[in-house]
Amino acid sequence: MNRCPWGDTTPLYREYHDTEWGVELHGETALFERMCLESFQSGLSWLTILRKRENFRAAFAGFVPEVVAGFGDDDFARLMADAGIVRNRAKITATIANARAVGELDRPLDELLWSFAPTGPRPRPATLADVPATTPESKAMAKELKRRGFVFLGPTTCYALMQATGMVDDHIATCFRAG
């Protein structure tokens, strides 16, 4: 079975590639979780995040934005001491700030994020080298999220979020999951 090359390197990547990556995802909590995990991944291997995902879910109250938005100093200290997650001060602060930003939205997070999904046909990448790191849509998403008070979500992170949640399908042409 042909997969995208990255999706065939470890059992955890295979499972993620085959069942989650590029699958359309909706819902405030689910999208907030992916948004946060993509931010935590910045500068790290996605495999690191996948290995710690259950710990992240426990540490961040299942990524329910209303709960995370209420985190205070004690929660921050608890998170910084939790070896089961990535203990990065800026990323933890961003997750809490972004939960608060979700609460300030004038439209559902799901609707906001999906408004940046490209429409119409897109060329399927032939190789991994053909997969972009950013697109005009991911740049627009990052700009709008920043305008709305979100942090640690640049165009590259936004594009990774778009790929992970099925807003775009970047499975390469020879992958069994392509189109």
Q: Explain this structure to me?
A:
The two termini are 15 Å apart. Helix content is 53%, strand content 0%. The mean pLDDT is 97. By secondary structure, the protein is an all-alpha fold. The protein is globular. Helix 2 (28-41) crosses helix 3 (46-59) and helix 2 (28-41) packs across helix 9 (155-164). It is built from 9 helices and no strands.
Strands, helices and their partners?
Layout lengths: L10 H9 L8 H14 L4 H14 L5 H5 L3 H8 L8 H16 L4 H6 L21 H12 L7 H10 L15
Could you spell the SSE succession in H and E letters? Answer: HHHHHHHHH
Count of alpha/pi helices: 9
The residue fraction in helices comes out at 40-55%
By oligomeric state, this entry counts as single chain
Mean pLDDT: 97
Poorly predicted ranges: none
Biggest sheet details? none
Strand content: under 5%
| Class from helix and strand fractions | mainly alpha
Q: Measure the end-to-end span.
A: 15 Å
- Cα Rg: 16 Å
Number of strands: 0
Shape: globular
Keywords, separated by commas or semicolons:
mainly alpha
Quick structural gist:
By secondary structure, the chain is an all-alpha fold. It contains nine helices and no strands. Helix 2 packs across helix 3 (46-59), helix 2 packs across helix 9 (155-164) and helix 8 (136-147) packs across helix 9.
